[in-house]
């Protein structure tokens, strides 16, 4: 344990903080790139997740429709519910594939900073979530007759921050539940209550952006999303190491 | 023995505080007898927050010191906290029915926050049941316990804002009674109830902690027996 720690510290950059950060970033990008490559070379988790989210949106339409005014009023909430549900599947898969192949143990055995590994996994999840968010935004615009072109910048900022939050929380919760017997139930059960403030803020920000922000509340909700993301990224980076060691 | 005495004292204290809250203190002018629910409701909500704070601190203790006694404190506090949270929500609904006219009021930030709190810690307890290895269980649970505690203020804050955009004030928020203008009888009764509930909380915590330690000891001896049996088979086979 002590020797491994020393190795890790040495590998993390000879005590110079700038070197450590540079090295950590390189490791994180390498991990994220590995996940992206695996995804592109035939695992296609994103595609099936996207179709799942599209089906969810269709079912929302059946549940609340066919009154189109009601559907477009509910659109921000439906968009984010679809993103969160699909996101749970997506981040769950990113870890599941690793344990199926026994790759997570190898990843844990590398003498590198655990925070860099967390950042890498979260970055991969973030990329998937970003694709999901943008495609679903377009799908919601078409299905529920929402005018998204009126405020593209605030909508994109909301999607980016929401995607980052889901990825940040999802990465360490997926790592936590991946070896559990009932992981299919436990991952959403643990993640959804944690994501409640994100859902709330993202829905409000989206609704404000779509309606031209008449009450000037957009900035506050974006700020809440930023705060949520920062808190969860710090919490994830601090705890992911414990998960790899004996979680 | 001391714990047993504490249990009896707590029981008597809760009974006495309930008697005062039900029959001695006058009913609220606006809310009538329904307001009496506030005494156990506020006391249990307060203890629920205390419990989850204890869980978070004990979780940090486990990750730091690797002593399973911290984990036993964490699980005890989480379980007792879930009990008090459920009790607080139940009391809130019983109070909401006559005062608001509905059991569930989406515009009350405390109610929605508390419901999420219950979900967070029920998840924590379920997670514990799914892991057999004590150290792994402690680590996984500790992470969930810490992150849940970090999430509570964010949840509260966001729900508060969310409601704020619909409506400026919630009618008859139960905690209003605590303001200094309120008659001393109300404040005194609430403090008495709080003290009685806290005694009960301490008693439950001690008992649950003892149970958790006994469970750990049993798991440990079962594992040792298993190892010894396996070794015997090996020796017998030569």
Quick structural overview:
The complex is a heterodimer of chains A (247) and B (238). Chain A is an all-alpha fold.
Walk me through this protein's architecture.
- The complex is a heterodimer of chains A (247) and B (238).
- Chain A is mostly helical.
- Chain A has one domain (2-246).
- Chain A is 85% helix and 0% strand.
- Chain A is built from 9 helices and no strands.
- Chain A has helices at 2-11, 17-43, 45-64, 68-100, 103-109, 114-143, 152-177, 183-210, 218-246.
- The radius of gyration of chain A is 19 Å and the shape is globular.
- The mean pLDDT of chain A is 84.
- Chain A binds chain B through residues 172, 176-177, 180-182, 186, 189-190, 192-194, 196-197, 200-201, 204, 215, 217, 220, 224, 227-228, 231-232, 235, 239, 242-243, 245-247, and chain B through 63, 116, 119-120, 123, 126-127, 130-131, 135-136, 139-140, 142-144, 146-148, 150-151, 154-155, 157-159, 161-162, 165.
Number of helices of chain B: 6
Proportion of strand residues of chain B: under 5%
Number of domains of chain A: 1
Largest sheet of chain B: none
Q: Helicity range of the residues of chain A? A: over 70%
Q: What form of chain A results from the Cα inertia axes?
A: globular
List its salient traits:
heterodimer, A: 247 residues, mainly alpha, 9 helices, globular, B: 238 residues
Helices and strands in order, then pairings?
The complex is a heterodimer of chains A (247) and B (238).
Chain A: H1 2-11, H2 17-43, H3 45-64, H4 68-100, H5 103-109, H6 114-143, H7 152-177, H8 183-210, H9 218-246
Helix pairs in contact in A: 2-6, 3-4, 3-6, 4-6, 4-7, 4-8, 6-7, 6-9, 7-8, 7-9, 8-9
Chain B: H1 2-24, H2 38-65, H3 68-99, H4 109-129, H5 134-164, H6 184-237
């Amino acid at each position: 344990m002590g020797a491994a720690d020393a190795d890790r510290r040495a590998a993390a950059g000879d005590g110079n903080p700038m070197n450590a950060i540079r090295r950590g970033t390189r490791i994180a990008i390498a991990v994220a790139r590995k996940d992206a490559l695996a995804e592109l070379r035939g695992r296609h988790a994103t595609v099936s997740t996207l179709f799942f989210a599209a089906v969810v949106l269709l079912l929302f339409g059946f549940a609340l429709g066919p009154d189109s005014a009601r559907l477009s009023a509910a659109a921000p909430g439906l968009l984010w519910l679809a993103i969160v549900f699909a996101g749970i599947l997506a981040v769950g898969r990113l870890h599941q594939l690793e344990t199926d192949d026994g790759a997570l143990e190898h990843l844990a055995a590398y003498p590198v900073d655990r925070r860099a590994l967390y950042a890498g996994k979260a970055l991969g999840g973030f990329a998937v979530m970003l694709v999901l968010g943008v495609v679903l935004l377009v799908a919601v615009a078409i299905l529920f007759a929402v005018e998204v072109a009126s405020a593209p910048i605030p909508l994109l900022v909301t999607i980016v921050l929401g995607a980052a939050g889901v990825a940040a929380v999802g990465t360490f919760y997926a790592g936590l539940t991946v070896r559990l017997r009932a992981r299919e139930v436990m991952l959403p059960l643990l993640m959804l209550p944690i994501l409640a403030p994100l859902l709330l803020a993202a829905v409000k920000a989206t609704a404000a952006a779509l309606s031209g922000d008449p009450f000037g509340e957009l900035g506050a909700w974006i700020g809440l999303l930023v705060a949520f993301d920062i808190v969860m990224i710090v919490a994830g980076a601090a705890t992911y190491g414990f998960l790899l060691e004996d979680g | 023995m001391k714990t047993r005495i504490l249990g009896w004292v707590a029981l008597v204290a809760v009974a006495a505080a309930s008697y005062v809250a039900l029959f001695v203190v006058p009913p609220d002018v606006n809310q009538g007898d329904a307001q009496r629910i506030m005494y156990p409701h506020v006391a249990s909500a307060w203890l629920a927050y205390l419990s989850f704070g204890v869980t978070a601190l004990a979780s940090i203790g486990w990750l730091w010191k690797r002593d399973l006694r911290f984990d036993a404190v964490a699980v005890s506090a989480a379980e007792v906290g879930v009990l008090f949270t459920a009790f607080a929500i139940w009391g809130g609904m019983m109070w909401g029915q006559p005062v608001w006219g509905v059991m569930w009021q989406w515009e009350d930030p405390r109610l929605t926050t508390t419901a999420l709190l219950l979900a967070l810690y029920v998840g924590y307890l379920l997670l514990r049941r799914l892991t057999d290895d004590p150290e792994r269980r402690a680590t996984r649970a500790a992470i969930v316990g810490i992150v849940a505690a970090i999430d509570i203020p964010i949840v509260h804050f966001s729900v508060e804002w969310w409601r704020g955009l619909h409506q400026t004030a919630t009618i008859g928020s139960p905690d209003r009674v605590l303001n200094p203008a309120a008659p001393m009888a109300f404040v005194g009764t609430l403090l008495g109830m709080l003290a009685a509930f806290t005694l009960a909380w301490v008693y439950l915590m001690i008992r649950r902690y003892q149970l958790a330690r006994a469970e750990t000891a049993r798991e440990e001896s079962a594992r040792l027996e298993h190892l010894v049996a396996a070794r015997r088979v090996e020796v017998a086979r030569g």
